[in-house]
């Protein structure tokens, strides 16, 4: 059976829990923060850490963090339900050298996928366009807005403390994967 729709899905903060970095930041920078303390996507600004210091730290910790990231609550169940009817294209800003770690994480979590692309930057528009994505799932505010505006597709933006700027009508805020499932299932029925 040919699947009619293709979903573009960010990984970090979307499929993985948005607080995945917090324990590592607390331990290595001697902080005691929660996800609610992170009010900006750019962590160096949010935490007042020098960019070069954070970049060096992130280069070292990135593989460990990604290998051990917990899954966002409800993500697996919803994605596996959709997998029967739609293609799942995971499009992430992760750098390409992390592909094996990423693929291993999907294998360990038993999440099926049709395709994974690590873009190496937050510029996902070209990749989403190339693969004719019909709907996108994101946690980064400006990515969600630009994907919607450039591609004229709906974008599900998972609510976090760091993405609270206003959004246009085609960017739909969701608080959970279960909530997203209800919206998406209704949207899919409209297009059948």
What this model shows, in words?
Keywords: Hydrolase. It comes from Oikeobacillus pervagus. Belongs to the 5'(3')-deoxyribonucleotidase family. It is an enzyme of class 3 (hydrolase). The protein is α/β, with parallel strands linked by helices and 192 residues long. It has two domains: 5-17 and 71-190, HAD superfamily/HAD-like (Rossmann fold); 22-68, no CATH class. Helices cover 43% and strands 15% of the residues. The protein has eight helices and six strands, in the order E-H-H-H-H-E-H-E-H-E-H-E-E-H. The chain has helices spanning 22-29, 43-47, 51-68, 75-83, 99-109, 125-130, 141-151, 177-190; strands at residues 5-9, 86-92, 115-118, 135-138, 155-158, 171-174. A six-stranded parallel sheet has the order 3-2-1-4-5-6, sandwiched between helices. Helix 3 (51-68) packs parallel to helix 5 (99-109). The longest helix has 18 residues, at 51-68. It is globular, with a radius of gyration of 16 Å.
Quick rundown:
The chain is α/β, with parallel strands linked by helices and 192 residues long. Helix content is 43%, strand content 15%.
- SSE arrangement, N to C: EHHHHEHEHEHEEH
The best one-word shape is globular
- Considering the protein shown, what is the CATH homologous superfamily of the largest domain? HAD superfamily/HAD-like
Overall pLDDT metric? 95
Name the features.
single chain; 192 residues; alpha/beta; Rossmann fold; six-stranded parallel sheet
Write the layout of secondary structure elements.
Elements: E1 5-9, H1 22-29, H2 43-47, H3 51-68, H4 75-83, E2 86-92, H5 99-109, E3 115-118, H6 125-130, E4 135-138, H7 141-151, E5 155-158, E6 171-174, H8 177-190
Parallel strand pairs: 1-2, 1-4, 2-3, 4-5, 5-6
Helix pairs in contact: 3-5
